[in-house]
Amino acid sequence: MNWKTVVAAAVAAAFALPFAASAESDKPKSEKAAGPAASGRTTGSAALFDRLDKNKDGFVTRDEARDASELQGRFAELDTDNDGKISRSEMRGLDNDRRSAAGSSK
Fold it and tell me: What is the second-level CATH architecture of the domain 42-104?
């Protein structure tokens, strides 16, 4: 490889870097942090869980779920182990309910 090729590659990389950084900074904050959730590959309950788990401890407490209209009156139902918090796997019960409701409406 001659030095002109190396210089051309370095210049191209130098120009590409700001565009790549700009593209990342143009994404909404939720897309940057959410990973798969941002691309639509997660379920509705996973996105809801991520939104409600404010302290990111892996559980949604009654206090964190207080203003979630999706969970009004359903906290105890979803908290299957009765520990006062909803785990990610317990939250998946919402997806199961949605699938059941969609299947029965056909």
Answer: Orthogonal Bundle (1.10)
